[in-house]
What does this fold into?
Amino acid sequence: MSGEVLSQSEIDALLAALSTGEMSADELKKEEATKKVKVYDFKRALRFSKDQIRSLTRIHENFARLLTTFFSAQLRTYVQISVASADQLPYEEFIRSIPKMTILNVFEVPPLDGRILLEVNPNIAYAMLDRMLGGRGTSINKVDNLTEIETKIMTNLFEKAFSHLRDAWESIAEIDPILTDFEVNPQFLQMVSPNDTVVVISLNTQIADSSGMINICIPYVVLEPIIPRLSVHYWMQTQKKEREPQEVQALEKRLKRAHVPVIAELGTATITIQEFLQLGVGDVIQLDQTIHEPLVVKIGEVPKFTGQPGKMHKRLAVQILDTIKGGEDDDE
It folds into this structure.
Protein backbone atom coordinates (compact mmCIF):
# COMPACT_ATOMS: atom_id res chain seq x y z
CA MET A 1 0.00 0.00 0.00
CA SER A 2 1.17 3.54 -0.63
CA GLY A 3 1.82 6.09 2.08
CA GLU A 4 -1.09 8.28 0.93
CA VAL A 5 -3.93 9.15 3.29
CA LEU A 6 -7.16 7.27 2.43
CA SER A 7 -10.50 9.01 2.25
CA GLN A 8 -13.49 7.70 4.21
CA SER A 9 -15.02 6.18 1.05
CA GLU A 10 -11.77 4.33 0.27
CA ILE A 11 -11.60 2.99 3.82
CA ASP A 12 -15.22 1.75 3.57
CA ALA A 13 -14.48 0.05 0.23
CA LEU A 14 -11.38 -1.65 1.71
CA LEU A 15 -13.31 -2.94 4.72
CA ALA A 16 -16.09 -4.20 2.44
CA ALA A 17 -13.55 -6.08 0.28
CA LEU A 18 -12.06 -7.72 3.38
CA SER A 19 -15.50 -8.73 4.72
CA THR A 20 -16.66 -10.24 1.38
CA GLY A 21 -13.40 -12.12 0.84
CA GLU A 22 -12.38 -10.25 -2.31
CA MET A 23 -9.17 -9.29 -0.53
CA SER A 24 -7.46 -11.07 2.35
CA ALA A 25 -5.34 -9.69 5.17
CA ASP A 26 -2.46 -11.90 4.00
CA GLU A 27 -2.47 -10.16 0.63
CA LEU A 28 -2.27 -6.79 2.37
CA LYS A 29 0.70 -7.96 4.44
CA LYS A 30 2.48 -9.26 1.33
CA GLU A 31 1.89 -5.94 -0.41
CA GLU A 32 3.34 -4.06 2.58
CA ALA A 33 6.36 -6.42 2.62
CA THR A 34 7.23 -5.69 -1.00
CA LYS A 35 9.95 -3.15 -1.63
CA LYS A 36 8.57 0.37 -1.88
CA VAL A 37 9.72 2.41 -4.87
CA LYS A 38 9.67 6.19 -4.80
CA VAL A 39 9.13 8.01 -8.06
CA TYR A 40 11.93 10.49 -8.84
CA ASP A 41 11.39 13.29 -11.33
CA PHE A 42 14.70 14.12 -13.04
CA LYS A 43 13.19 17.38 -14.31
CA ARG A 44 12.75 18.45 -10.69
CA ALA A 45 16.12 17.59 -9.22
CA LEU A 46 16.50 18.27 -5.50
CA ARG A 47 19.88 19.96 -5.27
CA PHE A 48 19.58 21.32 -1.71
CA SER A 49 19.44 19.23 1.45
CA LYS A 50 16.85 19.87 4.18
CA ASP A 51 19.66 21.18 6.36
CA GLN A 52 20.61 23.77 3.75
CA ILE A 53 16.98 24.81 3.26
CA ARG A 54 16.66 25.30 7.03
CA SER A 55 19.77 27.50 7.01
CA LEU A 56 18.34 29.62 4.19
CA THR A 57 15.07 29.90 6.11
CA ARG A 58 16.91 31.09 9.22
CA ILE A 59 18.87 33.68 7.21
CA HIS A 60 15.73 35.08 5.56
CA GLU A 61 13.84 35.19 8.85
CA ASN A 62 16.44 37.76 9.85
CA PHE A 63 15.94 39.48 6.48
CA ALA A 64 12.18 39.58 7.10
CA ARG A 65 12.75 41.34 10.43
CA LEU A 66 15.01 43.89 8.73
CA LEU A 67 12.37 44.49 6.03
CA THR A 68 9.68 44.96 8.69
CA THR A 69 11.73 47.69 10.36
CA PHE A 70 12.63 49.35 7.03
CA PHE A 71 9.11 49.43 5.58
CA SER A 72 7.60 50.55 8.89
CA ALA A 73 9.90 53.59 8.87
CA GLN A 74 9.43 54.34 5.16
CA LEU A 75 5.65 53.87 4.99
CA ARG A 76 4.83 55.11 8.52
CA THR A 77 2.16 52.46 9.03
CA TYR A 78 1.70 48.95 10.45
CA VAL A 79 3.95 46.45 8.65
CA GLN A 80 4.49 42.78 9.46
CA ILE A 81 6.67 40.46 7.35
CA SER A 82 7.49 36.83 8.17
CA VAL A 83 8.79 33.76 6.34
CA ALA A 84 5.92 31.54 5.15
CA SER A 85 7.91 28.84 3.36
CA ALA A 86 11.19 27.95 1.67
CA ASP A 87 11.10 25.41 -1.18
CA GLN A 88 13.23 24.26 -4.09
CA LEU A 89 11.57 23.81 -7.46
CA PRO A 90 12.25 24.28 -11.20
CA TYR A 91 12.39 27.88 -12.39
CA GLU A 92 9.57 27.25 -14.87
CA GLU A 93 7.27 26.05 -12.08
CA PHE A 94 7.99 29.20 -10.05
CA ILE A 95 7.18 31.45 -13.03
CA ARG A 96 3.86 29.64 -13.53
CA SER A 97 2.96 30.05 -9.85
CA ILE A 98 3.17 33.88 -9.74
CA PRO A 99 0.56 36.27 -11.25
CA LYS A 100 0.70 37.01 -14.98
CA MET A 101 1.21 40.69 -14.19
CA THR A 102 3.24 41.45 -11.07
CA ILE A 103 6.17 43.52 -9.78
CA LEU A 104 9.53 41.89 -10.59
CA ASN A 105 12.85 43.32 -9.38
CA VAL A 106 16.04 41.65 -10.64
CA PHE A 107 19.23 42.06 -8.60
CA GLU A 108 22.84 41.11 -9.16
CA VAL A 109 24.74 40.11 -6.02
CA PRO A 110 28.46 40.46 -6.76
CA PRO A 111 30.87 38.80 -6.21
CA LEU A 112 28.44 35.86 -6.66
CA ASP A 113 27.36 34.90 -10.18
CA GLY A 114 23.80 34.96 -11.41
CA ARG A 115 20.83 37.12 -10.40
CA ILE A 116 18.19 37.06 -7.66
CA LEU A 117 14.53 37.87 -8.31
CA LEU A 118 12.33 39.80 -5.87
CA GLU A 119 8.66 39.35 -6.80
CA VAL A 120 6.17 41.60 -4.99
CA ASN A 121 2.46 40.90 -5.25
CA PRO A 122 0.66 43.89 -6.85
CA ASN A 123 -1.72 44.08 -3.90
CA ILE A 124 1.26 44.80 -1.62
CA ALA A 125 3.19 46.93 -4.13
CA TYR A 126 0.29 49.36 -4.66
CA ALA A 127 -0.41 49.63 -0.94
CA MET A 128 3.23 50.69 -0.51
CA LEU A 129 2.98 53.14 -3.44
CA ASP A 130 -0.21 54.67 -2.01
CA ARG A 131 1.51 55.23 1.35
CA MET A 132 4.58 56.75 -0.30
CA LEU A 133 2.28 59.22 -2.09
CA GLY A 134 0.49 60.19 1.12
CA GLY A 135 -2.51 57.86 0.96
CA ARG A 136 -3.93 55.42 3.49
CA GLY A 137 -2.36 52.35 1.92
CA THR A 138 -5.24 51.42 -0.41
CA SER A 139 -4.36 48.86 -3.05
CA ILE A 140 -5.56 49.26 -6.68
CA ASN A 141 -4.18 46.69 -9.10
CA LYS A 142 -3.21 48.45 -12.35
CA VAL A 143 0.18 46.87 -12.86
CA ASP A 144 -0.27 46.71 -16.64
CA ASN A 145 -0.09 50.51 -17.03
CA LEU A 146 2.46 51.83 -14.55
CA THR A 147 3.53 55.42 -15.12
CA GLU A 148 7.21 56.41 -15.19
CA ILE A 149 6.86 58.19 -11.85
CA GLU A 150 5.22 55.14 -10.21
CA THR A 151 7.93 52.88 -11.64
CA LYS A 152 10.69 55.14 -10.33
CA ILE A 153 9.15 55.33 -6.83
CA MET A 154 8.80 51.55 -6.67
CA THR A 155 12.29 50.78 -7.94
CA ASN A 156 13.84 53.22 -5.45
CA LEU A 157 11.86 51.70 -2.58
CA PHE A 158 12.67 48.07 -3.40
CA GLU A 159 16.32 48.85 -4.17
CA LYS A 160 16.75 50.35 -0.69
CA ALA A 161 14.82 47.48 0.91
CA PHE A 162 16.85 44.76 -0.82
CA SER A 163 20.12 46.35 0.30
CA HIS A 164 19.33 44.86 3.74
CA LEU A 165 20.01 41.43 2.23
CA ARG A 166 23.70 42.35 2.65
CA ASP A 167 23.25 42.35 6.45
CA ALA A 168 21.17 39.16 6.46
CA TRP A 169 23.74 37.27 4.36
CA GLU A 170 26.86 38.52 6.14
CA SER A 171 27.31 35.18 7.93
CA ILE A 172 27.66 33.27 4.63
CA ALA A 173 28.86 35.82 2.05
CA GLU A 174 29.70 39.49 1.61
CA ILE A 175 27.46 40.65 -1.23
CA ASP A 176 26.56 44.01 -2.76
CA PRO A 177 22.97 43.85 -4.19
CA ILE A 178 22.48 45.97 -7.34
CA LEU A 179 19.10 46.47 -9.03
CA THR A 180 19.59 45.68 -12.74
CA ASP A 181 16.07 45.21 -14.13
CA PHE A 182 12.40 45.98 -13.43
CA GLU A 183 9.65 44.01 -15.13
CA VAL A 184 5.91 43.37 -14.75
CA ASN A 185 5.44 40.33 -17.01
CA PRO A 186 7.20 37.14 -15.86
CA GLN A 187 7.09 35.68 -19.37
CA PHE A 188 9.57 38.33 -20.52
CA LEU A 189 12.02 37.42 -17.74
CA GLN A 190 14.35 34.51 -18.31
CA MET A 191 17.04 34.43 -15.62
CA VAL A 192 17.95 30.73 -15.94
CA SER A 193 16.82 27.77 -18.04
CA PRO A 194 13.29 26.46 -17.26
CA ASN A 195 14.49 23.23 -15.60
CA ASP A 196 17.16 24.83 -13.41
CA THR A 197 16.56 24.47 -9.68
CA VAL A 198 15.77 27.61 -7.69
CA VAL A 199 15.06 28.23 -4.02
CA VAL A 200 11.92 30.29 -3.41
CA ILE A 201 11.51 31.99 -0.03
CA SER A 202 7.94 33.25 0.39
CA LEU A 203 7.28 36.09 2.84
CA ASN A 204 3.84 36.78 4.31
CA THR A 205 3.40 40.55 4.16
CA GLN A 206 0.86 42.79 5.87
CA ILE A 207 0.82 46.52 4.98
CA ALA A 208 -1.94 48.38 6.88
CA ASP A 209 -5.14 46.62 5.68
CA SER A 210 -3.53 45.00 2.62
CA SER A 211 -1.85 41.60 2.60
CA GLY A 212 0.01 39.50 0.06
CA MET A 213 3.23 37.65 -0.68
CA ILE A 214 6.77 38.71 -1.45
CA ASN A 215 8.79 35.94 -3.12
CA ILE A 216 12.59 35.79 -3.31
CA CYS A 217 13.81 33.48 -6.09
CA ILE A 218 17.46 32.41 -5.79
CA PRO A 219 18.88 30.21 -8.59
CA TYR A 220 21.21 27.35 -7.75
CA VAL A 221 24.05 29.03 -9.68
CA VAL A 222 24.04 31.92 -7.17
CA LEU A 223 24.29 29.68 -4.10
CA GLU A 224 26.60 27.03 -5.57
CA PRO A 225 29.91 28.64 -4.42
CA ILE A 226 28.64 29.07 -0.84
CA ILE A 227 26.60 25.88 -0.38
CA PRO A 228 29.14 24.41 2.11
CA ARG A 229 28.51 27.43 4.36
CA LEU A 230 24.81 26.54 4.63
CA SER A 231 25.49 23.43 6.72
CA VAL A 232 24.99 23.28 10.49
CA HIS A 233 28.63 22.16 10.87
CA TYR A 234 29.84 25.40 9.26
CA TRP A 235 27.57 27.52 11.48
CA MET A 236 28.82 25.79 14.62
CA GLN A 237 32.45 26.24 13.54
CA THR A 238 31.80 29.93 12.87
CA GLN A 239 30.28 30.44 16.31
CA LYS A 240 33.19 28.72 18.06
CA LYS A 241 35.88 30.41 15.97
CA GLU A 242 38.22 32.47 18.11
CA ARG A 243 40.13 35.54 17.06
CA GLU A 244 43.41 34.95 15.30
CA PRO A 245 46.56 35.75 17.36
CA GLN A 246 47.48 38.46 14.83
CA GLU A 247 44.10 40.17 15.39
CA VAL A 248 44.51 40.06 19.17
CA GLN A 249 48.01 41.54 18.93
CA ALA A 250 46.80 44.30 16.59
CA LEU A 251 43.97 45.18 19.01
CA GLU A 252 46.33 45.26 21.98
CA LYS A 253 48.75 47.48 20.05
CA ARG A 254 46.00 49.96 19.18
CA LEU A 255 44.68 49.99 22.75
CA LYS A 256 48.15 50.78 24.09
CA ARG A 257 48.34 53.77 21.74
CA ALA A 258 44.96 55.13 22.82
CA HIS A 259 45.08 58.48 24.65
CA VAL A 260 43.02 58.93 27.84
CA PRO A 261 42.79 62.20 29.82
CA VAL A 262 44.09 62.04 33.41
CA ILE A 263 42.88 64.80 35.75
CA ALA A 264 44.26 65.45 39.25
CA GLU A 265 41.83 67.64 41.18
CA LEU A 266 43.47 69.91 43.77
CA GLY A 267 40.09 70.47 45.39
CA THR A 268 36.68 72.06 44.92
CA ALA A 269 34.98 75.27 46.00
CA THR A 270 31.48 76.73 45.93
CA ILE A 271 30.85 80.42 45.29
CA THR A 272 27.79 82.49 44.43
CA ILE A 273 27.11 83.94 41.01
CA GLN A 274 27.58 87.41 42.50
CA GLU A 275 31.06 86.44 43.74
CA PHE A 276 31.84 84.90 40.36
CA LEU A 277 30.89 88.10 38.55
CA GLN A 278 33.12 90.15 40.84
CA LEU A 279 36.24 87.98 40.36
CA GLY A 280 39.29 89.80 39.10
CA VAL A 281 42.98 89.26 38.45
CA GLY A 282 44.82 88.42 41.68
CA ASP A 283 41.73 87.17 43.57
CA VAL A 284 42.14 83.90 45.49
CA ILE A 285 39.51 81.12 45.65
CA GLN A 286 39.80 79.05 48.82
CA LEU A 287 39.36 75.32 48.16
CA ASP A 288 37.39 73.00 50.44
CA GLN A 289 40.36 70.60 50.70
CA THR A 290 43.44 70.90 52.92
CA ILE A 291 46.99 70.22 51.73
CA HIS A 292 47.15 67.11 53.91
CA GLU A 293 44.21 65.38 52.15
CA PRO A 294 44.91 63.15 49.10
CA LEU A 295 43.93 64.38 45.65
CA VAL A 296 41.29 62.66 43.50
CA VAL A 297 42.73 61.43 40.21
CA LYS A 298 40.14 60.99 37.42
CA ILE A 299 40.44 58.97 34.22
CA GLY A 300 38.23 60.95 31.89
CA GLU A 301 35.35 61.97 34.15
CA VAL A 302 35.52 58.88 36.39
CA PRO A 303 37.34 59.03 39.80
CA LYS A 304 39.76 56.09 39.82
CA PHE A 305 42.70 56.85 42.17
CA THR A 306 43.84 58.93 45.11
CA GLY A 307 47.25 60.60 44.98
CA GLN A 308 49.56 63.23 46.45
CA PRO A 309 51.18 66.13 44.56
CA GLY A 310 54.92 66.52 44.19
CA LYS A 311 57.78 67.07 41.75
CA MET A 312 59.75 64.70 39.53
CA HIS A 313 62.68 65.87 37.38
CA LYS A 314 61.72 69.50 38.07
CA ARG A 315 58.18 68.90 36.79
CA LEU A 316 54.88 68.72 38.66
CA ALA A 317 53.75 65.16 39.30
CA VAL A 318 51.13 63.12 41.18
CA GLN A 319 52.02 59.94 43.05
CA ILE A 320 49.22 57.31 43.05
CA LEU A 321 48.37 56.20 46.60
CA ASP A 322 45.34 53.96 46.25
CA THR A 323 42.49 52.85 43.98
CA ILE A 324 38.97 54.19 44.45
CA LYS A 325 36.59 51.20 44.52
CA GLY A 326 32.82 51.18 44.20
CA GLY A 327 30.44 53.06 41.99
CA GLU A 328 28.66 52.00 38.80
CA ASP A 329 31.62 52.91 36.62
CA ASP A 330 34.08 50.68 38.52
CA ASP A 331 34.73 47.50 36.54
CA GLU A 332 36.86 45.83 39.21
Remarks:
- The chain has three domains: 8-38, 50-240, 255-323.
- The CA atoms of residues 34 and 157 lie 58 Å apart.
